[in-house]
Write a structure and sequence with these properties.
With about 220 residues, this protein is mainly α. It has one domain. Helices cover about 70% and strands about 0% of the residues. The protein contains 11 helices and no strands. Helix 1 packs across helix 6 and helix 3 packs across helix 5. Pfam families: TPT.
């Protein structure tokens, strides 16, 4: 999983598809004060909490941004109501998770105001690398002696090393498919609407960010 994520980020930076951030020493000191646990996909309702909490802090958004969160709210509500395994404990857990991630993101953006080249994607890249380095020594100590044996065993199981790497790359997709969670038509519709709303939100917030970046440059 880590290899696949870092390969994606390395490709973006090395191919100049994403501007590589400068590695200044004081950047790491600032980053240590924020969470680095970007290890899972952010729930699609997070933009709603982000807009609301940012508004409390004095940030203003154009009407397009507010309209873009409406399909997110509707889609998430429809998906939750039609969820086969719905329970309030899971619902509140997701809401608390969203609030926590939003507050962390707001705090990290405020802490990194002096690092204009560190946007969301680059911050995710650096924090993923750091989150890997933290437990790496413990992983070597506990199970490092089994890595080579496990690697050869995995290769022998699938037959060829190319096949093994192919499945590693696709693990992000099949990780979600193998759960075989039943999905009703309305549940799928709600999820699709929420995803569409998230896309509209990202497009609505993209233009103001470009205008602000041009003013600062």
């Amino acid at each position: 999983m880590f290899l696949r994520r870092q390969t994606q980020k390395g490709t973006l930076w090395n191919r100049s598809l994403k501007a590589k951030p400068s590695n200044r020493n004081n950047f790491w000191l600032v980053l240590l004060a924020v969470a680095v646990s970007f290890t899972h996909v952010i729930e699609s309702a997070e933009p709603v909490f982000s807009v609301v909490f940012s508004s409390f802090l004095g940030v203003t958004y154009p009407i397009k941004v507010w309209l873009s969160i409406l399909p997110i709210v509707f889609g998430c509500s429809l998906a939750a109501v039609t969820e086969v395994s719905f329970n309030f404990q899971g619902l509140w857990g997701a809401i608390i998770s969203n609030v926590r991630f939003v507050l962390r993101n707001i705090y990290s953006k405020r802490s990194l105001q002096n690092f204009k080249e560190i946007d969301g994607l680059n911050l995710y890249g650096w924090s993923s690398i750091i989150s890997f380095l933290y437990p790496f020594p413990a992983a070597i100590l506990v199970e490092g002696s089994q890595w080579i044996q496990g690697y050869h065993k995995a290769i022998a199981t699938v037959g060829q090393s190319s096949t093994f790497y192919f499945w590693v790359i696709l693990s992000g997709v099949f990780y979600h498919l193998y759960n075989q969670n039943p999905v009703r038509p309305l549940n799928a519709l709600g999820s699709a609407i929420a995803i569409l709303g998230t896309f509209l939100y990202s497009q609505a917030t993209l233009k103001p960010k470009k205008i602000e970046a041009e003013k600062q440059s």
